[in-house]
Amino acid sequence: MWFVVQVTVQRPPPEDTITITSEVRKGAVAEITMSNPSDRPVDFIVRRRGEGLIGDDLFALEPQQRNAVYQLAFVPTKAGEFEGTVSFNNDDIGEFWYKLNLVANDAAPTPLAFQCELGKSTSTEVTFDNPTDIECALTVQNTNDVNFSVTPTNLVLRPKATLRATVTYMP
Known about the structure:
Blueprint lengths: L16 E7 L4 E7 L7 E8 L3 E2 L3 E4 L6 E7 L5 E11 L3 E12 L16 E8 L6 E4 L8 E4 L2 E4 L4 E8 L2
Parallel strand pairs: 1-8
Antiparallel strand pairs: 2-6, 3-5, 3-7, 4-6, 7-8, 9-13, 10-12, 11-13
């Protein structure tokens, strides 16, 4: 005799809601504290969902360990408000998860000062950092191409890399 059993399981409610705020291309870290009251080690598989989230994929707790800290980094590449989650999963214990409110503020402009004689030019290098694991394509928008030029005009910023562009001023 065979029976068909359908089990519907709902996700537990979040442990908490965590808000992480950072400036674009900078970073902020949220620390999530967990404890293991059992007499055996517990390994959690960590799943992150959301824009610009970085962290370890495994979180191990020793027996009787208290106040272990998981560090979740938020390194946004674009401004805006996003939602995300981080969950800690173990086959024996189950799932613990947190709702994330991710806020990425516009980066402050970096002022560049140029001084040059008429008919000559001066240049300065601008540095772009990419702290993420994602390749970023940057496009230059120049609103005064009579007096300023930028080379190269199309930039590809590799993961965890730094790239330089040259801004030239010609009065």
